[in-house]
Write a structure and sequence with these properties.
By secondary structure, the chain is an alpha/beta fold. The chain has four domains: 160 residues, Beta-Lactamase (2-Layer Sandwich); 119 residues, Enzyme I, Chain A, domain 2 (Orthogonal Bundle); 142 residues, Phosphoenolpyruvate-binding domains (TIM Barrel); 142 residues, Alpha-Beta Barrel (TIM Barrel), CATH 3.20.20.60. The chain is 43% helix and 15% strand. β5 and β6 form a beta hairpin. α1 packs antiparallel against α2, α5 packs antiparallel against α6 and α8 packs antiparallel against α10. It is globular and about 105 Å long. The protein starts with a helix and ends in an 11-residue tail after the last helix. Keywords: Cytoplasm, Kinase, Magnesium, Metal-binding, Phosphotransferase system, Sugar transport, Transferase, Transport. Belongs to the PEP-utilizing enzyme family. It comes from Aliidiomarina shirensis. It catalyses: L-histidyl-[protein] + phosphoenolpyruvate = N(pros)-phospho-L-histidyl-[protein] + pyruvate.
């Protein structure tokens, strides 16, 4: 049976569409079982019925539509019980329902197995025989196994919109991950890099200096191209988003990618081969990271390498002809690819790979371009020249939608524009509820930032500045001077507003290219403060650079990540004090009378163990900052990057909500400031719940500032407390989400969580 099963699965995987796949399954399963009939029913949950999609043995005409309502027949009983039914004489069973139109009255024996994917019943696989008999245990196991395999096939087909036929229960649509909110309608345009690393055939050279000259020329051409692209989008994106191109430029520096490529050339490889080897080495290290933000930098490195390669291969030809209403689609949309499409034509984007942490997603949100990422199992060519609707809220993509749906989304898109204009008109307002509760809105950053106050509107500092980027993009640890040169402009850019800089948060889950760490379970390993305290020479250099960059500005605050014990706090403070006295004494020696202020020190609450040590830690630090991303992950024991369990990762999980309430209540008792710097703070519903709990400082991505400010200005504490009371009684994240969504709809704020106004 195992060999037969493998052959069926192989044949199904090669089928061009779901109809063909189902036809193959019923044909081959009937032959393997020796049964008279084999059929597949799919569930239409909206219509509450099962549809006979394929059969071998029953009389189903091409134009017939045979259905069974939920609750009818043995088909429904197997689905309801979520277990197989093996009945010797089905006609005598009280739940049996005869379907006369397909000639079912002749069959007695019946074996029915539900088709289930991720706890959802997608349909039923049924075998029937004229003779009354019980199917054997081996036959039952075979059908159950085949149904489990079929569940994956159907789920992928549903996600890909490949379910065809007039009796299909699904609209032809795809589903991905929402990357940037909004509604886009237009024609698909397939974007492809001018050159690919995979096309390079490794070749050696006897003239390395000639190859180095070619490489340096290609780097110069790439710099000029990136500068042009940055200028093209400068009018439409915020200054901090433009810093994406600074990251690209810094990667081209000799201390980053340049040295690595030239080293390969000196080893005897041609320039194209050296670029391929060096870039793929960088990419593999980034892709191994568990931090989703940093892992997405692999996309940037690959994009940059392929741009250099295109100049080495002289493949930068004529500009493509973009459709007037362009939906950019690629295997992996990059920031530079996005910048290459004229803004007056670009309506939306779809990336088959990638996530909301990619630079393309960050740019899309800054430009107001609806985006969907991670559209799994779809061939790129399937979308070519298709007319699409892209819903950046739900992650849905409708392929060649019917006219009625088009009209509905046109109305929703018009409402989107009206809402965006209203919100933008009030971006200079402070975040304050209707009854006067002030909330400090800050931003998260991880690159060079020179913020444009006019575009950002009112904000109150940088609540989280990630310092890992310069460490990740070099072939060695950055010097104190290099770090100073990075931190100083950041501190200057905010004026007197505070900048919370997190100390180096790398380790087993975020290995440095030049400092590899191999661990079986990196999330629970040598990372964050654990690693830097074991290497005080790294920690001290970074803190010294921060303190020197803060001289004369005094807006620096230092945040310690991954704190688990009180000893880690004590040792960190000891080293910060050591660095402080060193910098102060050096400055006094050169400038007598100069003042160096010691910055405030905070601790990230992301390890659950810290919840029970807050009182002891509060005596030693100035503030707390809750990292909801890692706290959720550790509290729920879920790796959010593992697709098998990622569905369990939910910031609305009741356990996390109760932990967050405990934290803010305890910090209030201890008279210690606490802020939120995870993704939950930028979610409209999340921000509402957090403020209701008592949090008064939220740090988020820049694109979430305006909508969070607007929502808070249209709520009062009574509404929020009533909502919080209901939310804290929920036992499932979906209940929380539904309550929040209904409340926002009732308040006329539904346009922040779905398409429309």
């Amino acid at each position: 049976m195992l060999t037969v099963l493998q052959r069926i699965v192989e044949a199904v995987n090669q089928a061009p569409d779901l109809d063909s796949a189902l036809g193959l399954i019923v044909q081959k399963a009937r032959a393997a079982l020796g049964s008279d009939v084999c059929s597949v029913y799919l569930a239409d949950h909206d219509a509450q019925q099962f549809i006979l999609m394929a059969t071998e043995g029953l009389n189903l005409d091409e134009n017939d539509r045979v259905t069974l309502a939920f609750g009818e027949g043995l088909i429904s009983l197997a689905a309801q019980r979520e277990e197989p039914l093996n009945i010797a004489n089905a006609t005598e069973h009280p739940n049996f329902k005869l379907v006369e139109s397909v000639g079912e009255e002749a069959y007695r024996a019946m074996l029915v197995a539900p088709i289930i994917h991720q706890r959802k019943v997608l349909g039923v696989l049924a075998a029937q025989q004229r003779k009354a008999r019980a199917f054997s245990a081996e036959e039952e196991a075979f059908v159950v196994t085949l149904a489990a395999q079929l569940a994956t096939v159907i789920a992928h087909a549903e996600a890909r919109g490949l379910v065809s036929g007039h009796y299909s229960p699904w609209l032809r649509n795809l589903t991905g991950l929402p990357g940037a909110p909004g509604v886009a309608i237009g024609e698909a345009f397939i974007g492809k890099p001018a050159a690919t690393l995979g096309s390079v055939v490794p070749r050696r050279t006897e003239f390395p200096w000639r190859e180095i000259h070619k490489f340096r020329k290609a780097v110069l051409q790439t710099r000029m191209e990136l500068r042009t692209l940055a200028e093209q989008v400068a009018e439409y994106v915020a200054e901090d988003t433009l810093a994406i191109f600074d990251v690209y430029q810094s990667l081209l520096d000799a201390s980053s990618l340049g040295d690595a490529v030239e080293s390969k050339i000196k080893d005897g490889w041609m320039a194209q081969t050296a670029v391929k080897m060096a870039v793929e080495d960088f990419v593999s290290k980034f892709e191994d990271l568990d931090d989703s933000y940093l892992r997405e930098r692999a996309v940037d490195v690959r994009d940059l390498g392929q741009r250099i390669l295109s100049f080495l291969q002289d493949k930068n030809g004529s500009k493509p002809n973009f459709p007037d209403a362009c939906i950019l689609i690629a295997e992996e949309v990059t920031a530079s690819m996005l910048a290459g499409v004229p803004r007056n034509k670009l309506q939306g984007l779809v990336s088959l790979q990638g996530s909301a942490n990619s630079h393309a997603a960050i740019m899309a949100r800054s430009m107001g371009i609806p985006a969907v990422f991670g559209v799994s199992q779809v061939p790129l060519g399937y979308l070519a020249d298709q007319h699409l609707i892209v819903d950046g809220y739900s992650g849905e993509i409708f392929v060649n939608p019917p006219q009625q749906l088009m009209q509905e989304y046109e109305i929703l898109r018009k409402e989107e524009f009206e809402l965006a204009e209203m919100v933008a008109d009030h971006r200079e307002d402070e975040a304050c509820t209707l009854d006067g509760i002030a909330v400090s809105l800050q931003i998260n950053a991880g690159m060079n930032v020179e913020h444009d106050q006019q575009r950002l509107g009112h904000y109150e500092g940088i609540g989280l500045y990630r310092t890992e980027i310069p460490f990740m993009m070099r072939e060695r640890f950055p010097t104190e001077k290099e770090q100073y040169d990075l931190y100083r402009p950041v501190l200057e850019s905010t004026g007197s507003l505070p900048v919370v800089m997190r100390t180096l948060d790398v380790g087993g889950d975020k290995p440095l290219p030049y400092f590899p760490i191999h661990e079986e379970n990196p999330f629970l390993g040598w990372r964050g403060i654990r690693m830097t305290l074991d290497h005080p020479e790294i920690f001290l250099v970074q803190v010294r650079a921060m303190l020197r960059a803060n001289i004369g500005l005094d807006n620096l605050q230092i945040l310690l990540p991954m704190i688990t014990t009180l000893d880690e706090v004590d040792e960190s403070i000891r080293l910060i004090n050591q660095a402080y006295f060193e910098v102060r004494n050096e400055l006094l020696h050169s400038q007598p009378g100069a003042v160096v202020n010691r910055p405030k020190i905070g601790v990230m609450i992301e390890v659950p163990a810290l919840l029970y040590q807050l009182e002891a830690v509060a005596k030693k630090v100035d503030f707390f900052s809750v990292g909801t991303n890692d706290l959720t992950q550790y509290l729920l024991a879920v790796d959010r990057n593992n697709s098998r369990v990622a569905g369990l990762y939910d910031s609305f999980h009741p356990a996390l909500l109760h932990a967050l309430q405990f934290i803010v209540d305890r910090c209030r008792e201890l008279n210690k400031p606490v802020s939120i710097c995870g993704e939950m703070a930028g979610d409209p519903g999340g921000a509402l719940i957090l403020v209701a709990m008592g949090y008064r400082s939220l740090s988020m991505s820049t694109h979430n500032l305006d909508k969070t400010r607007w929502i808070l200005r249209h709520l009062d504490s009574e509404i929020m407390q009533t909502l919080l009371g209901k939310v804290m009684q929920c036992t499932h994240p979906d209940q929380v989400r539904r309550i929040v969504r209904l409340k926002l709809e009732a308040l006329g704020l539904g346009g922040f969580v779905r398409a429309g106004k």
